């Protein structure tokens, strides 16, 4: 009577009568089970599900913002622009000092001074050569003019002498007739013939002198061309040396200071360095926002197993990290462009929202999505999309029956057990 169980029973006696309720009817339980089974069969048979995949990306404009990096190592000595400034193509942005200094001074400055001195000497040499050319050609032209005048005078004298010889020849023939008629003696005829031949010898001397003057003029013309060509050749060689020195001066300038210029128009978005700061190769200098762009686009990277199921103008869901979906919800977008070839690693590295884990070497395709809303209203304000904002995108792929998704492992078993396909 004094067992532990008996004492416990006395402490907790029932205060009323026990009632036994009747159980549920087996037919009702069977009907409920059949209803749920039938509903499940209908759902599996006629229900569908669209496979979807979530991919990452970032907001960007078209054209993209231009990031300018340093191609040299040096110090920033001057800044030409400020944040928010409008710039044009080829406007200067930074001046960078890349020179080296030794005990004798800055190497590039000394090199440039030497080149400048050589250029001055070459210019002086060219000037002296041109003066020599001018004086030489002037002297030769004077000689040519003198010989031309002499040739003109000798030609006139020769013409008159030929006329006199012709007259003397006529007189000599007349004297022959006079002698035959007995009007003159033989001595007079001989004197006339001797005088004719003497004048003819003089004419020959005049003709020789005239030809010498013509030959001298021809020689002077040849010498003029030769001297002019020699002087031009010397000037040409000196100019070649000057061009080479000018090229060397350009290289010397590049070794001293270089100017970073803008290759596109736009607005300065951010400056990464300040005056006096040392920069290395590859350091970011500034970013330029395009002055005109149509809209913001979402650049996403889609794996190759999802690309065949998307098409242009497909609708997608977008969730921005800057605008949490728990508060702002999802936003709609439309596929605008699908690349035909996989994106290269170099291209993907230029986007911060590109997949970083590419160890499996999965091909990714670049897809542009245009958000339907370019601005987001919030508490009476308008929030704008900005370059570089990260976002997650849900893509809707192929659509199948529920039972097909459930039997997918068996399809894999069937494919693995199937023999060679001859279709």
TrEMBL record:
Give a yes or no for keyword Translocase in this entry: no
Keywords linked to the UniProt accession: Membrane, Transmembrane, Transmembrane helix, Transport
Record-annotated membrane-spanning stretches: 27-49
**Top-level lineage group:** Bacteria
Per UniProt, subcellular location reads as: Membrane
User: What is this entry's stated membrane topology?
Assistant: Single-pass membrane protein
Coarse class of the protein's main subcellular location: membrane
- Output the PANTHER family linked to this UniProt entry: EXPORTED PROTEIN, MEMBRANE FUSION SUBUNIT OF EMRAB-TOLC MULTIDRUG EFFLUX PUMP
Into which family does the record put it?
Belongs to the membrane fusion protein (MFP) (TC 8.A.1) family.
Q: What is this protein called?
A: HlyD family secretion protein
